[in-house]
Every structure is written in structure tokens, then in C-alpha cells.
Amino acid sequence: MVRWRSGTVQAVRRRWHGAAELDVVTAEGPLRALAYVELVGEPEPGDRVLLNVGALVMGLGTGGYALVVALPDRLPADPAGDGATRDAGHLVKARYTPLQAIRLGVDEEASPHRAVMAAATSLEGMPVVTADLHSALPAILAGLHATSPGLRVAYVMTDGGALPAWFSRTLDGLRGRLAGTVTTGQAFGGDLEASTVHTGLLAARHVLRADAAIVAQGPGNLGTGTAWGFSGVALGEAVNAIGTLGGRPVGSLRLSTGDGRPRHRGVSHHSLTAYGKVALLPADLPVPDGLDPRLAAEIDAALAPLAERHRLPRVPVDGLDEALRASPVPLSTMGRKLDEDYVYFLAAAAAGRFAASLI
Fold it and tell me: Do 165 and 225 have their domain in common?
């Protein structure tokens, strides 16, 4: 259910691509709020705002904001288009919710990319790195560019976490290093919009002209602590899509020594399930070289059953530490910084390095 509040904008704190962070005063006191300007318009001090505070009240890790639902006294103008045609797009995302967004799909008839997408049938061997968490994105990119600085890399964002790409400050900070972002499924707000991961991958290759791509959900992760109850199972489906389209799937293993939950230490059960049980086509699952011998042995034992279908290449890590520390955005996963869960980020960078070596 929605927990509603009404408040008044006191100040606009900061902005990044697609979003504005606000100080809002409510009857219960001050709070931080986030407005997606393409959905609700540009908030200004003094504006009355309607808020959804559910995630904030629950204390969810990625939900540290009240979300602005509307500026009811100053509604934004309708988007371009006369409303009688589909020239402005008819791809509906976050469907049948009060804030469903109507976007122009990359392969729609009105899209300037329609002809390219209609002819696109293959990824032409493009390597695609899949990752369980959004936090792996900058580390994978660091590994790709540390190996081949000139690579054009696209991000294909799935809908397992945040739906608006605008939520991600990480993505905002990487815009200068990415060829573009394609939001797929119910996710929206990318440079290109696609209805499925398949069309998103084809758009990355043929519209953004990427040499390599990264597939991961937006910030946040749905999980119940059960064997199958987590949004990362979609990684296996992404591997199948990549392989079916003639790409080269490279799985970024979720490794950890800093996570307090046993099911995520060593090799996370998320990786073991997604790659071991959902992915039906073979992938490369790179393992960083030079790990502590006890950790390496634990990882090898956990991954042994996956070797029946997948390849487990060892990847040298020289230079990856420098690349990770030079990241233009902070590295953090579940609140842990680079040195607090180093192997997590190293594994993601190693996956990026291996993908670059395939080009």
C-alpha cells in the first residue's frame, strides 16, 4: 500500500540527470524527497507536493527518499505531440500504475532508428557482461576501459531494481564514459527505450554502435532470502538472450568476503542459481587470479558444478586496483566501500577485462 504525505518544498538541494533532491516540510517534520522532473515537472521552493513515503518509512537501503508523486498546484505541460498520434511514442512503462510513463520505443515506427532495428538480427559476437547488482556497473566499466580505453560500452538496464534510470547518481556520473543507456522492460529514462532485453541488446549494438555492453538491474535488489526469490534470477535469462542473439555472454560473479550473510559469502547463491540453473546457454564466468588461497579454493569448489556448462577463465588482475581507485564515481555495494568488500569489485573488474579481451 502507498503511504501518502503532503508537504511544501523548502529548498532544492542538488540535481543530477533527470532528478532533483528536495528539502520538504510536512506536518510530521522535514524530510528529503526526490522528484523525477520528466514525470512531475520542475519543483521550486514553495511548491506543494504529494509524496509517497513508503520506502522511507520502512528504511529500505535504496529508498532513503520520499518520492514526489505530483506538484498538484503547478502541473507540467503535456509532452510534445498532439495526443492524437503516436509520434511521441506509445511504449508504456510502469504500466497501469498512476505514474505510467509513455516513451518512444527505439524500434517503433515513429523512431528514427526504426529501419536499423527492423534489420537487426544479431549481436555479431559482441561481448556482454551480466551483473547481479547495479553497484557492479562502474567496476565492470573500469575493467573494460583499463584493458581497452577506447571501447564504446553501452549499459542495458533491466527492471529488477529501480525503474527510473534517473534514480542512479552512479549512472549520471558515468554518462561521459558510456555510449548510452538502454532501459528495458518496465524500466525507463534511458537514452533509448526498449520493450525487452533482446531489443535493448540489439539497440546497444546497432544504434549506439557499442563494442561491448553491460546488463544489470537499476539500483536496488528485490530479495526474500529464499533460493529463488530474488530479482537477479534474470541474469540467467539475459545470458540466454545474449547467446540466442549471437553475442558472447560474460558473467560477473558476485563474490564477497564482506557480506555478513552466509549465503552471499564466497560465491553468492545469486550467481550459483542464475548461472547454474537459469542460464541454459554457455557463458564465460571469469575468476580473478591471485586471490587468497583459502578463498580461491572455496570459490573453485562452489563453481565446480557450473563448469559442466560454462567456462571459468582465470583473469590477471594487474592494473585493476588502479583502475578501480580511479573510478569517476564512488564504489559501494550494500553500503560497503571498495576496501570493505574488495573481492566483489575485483571480480566485476575482472569480468570487464575478460570481455575486453574478446574484442
Answer: yes
Written as nine digits, the cell of 31 is: 524530510
- CATH number, domain with residue 241: 3.40.50
**What's the confidence (pLDDT) of residue 84?**
47
Residue range 136-168, pLDDT digits in tens? 999 999 999 999 999 999 999 999 999 999 999
Number of domain units in the chain: 2
Q: How many residues does the chain have?
A: 359
Are 213 and 126 spatial neighbours (Cβ–Cβ below 8 Å)? yes
- Report yes or no on 82 lying in a domain: no
Q: Are residues 344 and 198 in the same domain?
A: yes
DSSP 76: P
CA 212: distance to chain centroid?
15
Q: Quick one: which H or E segment has residue 200?
A: helix 197-206
Q: Bin 96: left if φ > 0, else alpha if -120 < ψ < 50, else beta.
A: left
* Phi/psi of residue 198, nearest 5 degrees: -60, -50
DSSP string, 213-260: EEEEE-S---B-SSSS-BGGGHHHHHHHHHHHTT-EEEE---EESS-S
CB 169 within 8 A of CB 329: yes
Same domain, 140 and 256: yes
Determine the residue type at 319.
G
Take residue 335 and report the three cell numbers written for it.
553500503
Cβ–Cβ < 8 Å for 110, 82: no
Helix (H, G, I), strand (E, B) or coil at 182: strand
Separation CA 305–CA 163 (nearest Å) = 34
Residues 55 and 135 in one domain: no
User: pLDDT per residue over 214-235, tens digit each?
Assistant: 999 999 888 878 888 888 889 9
Q: Are residues 33 and 158 in the same domain?
A: no
Domain that holds residue 10: 4-70
Specify the 3-state DSSP secondary structure of 25.
strand
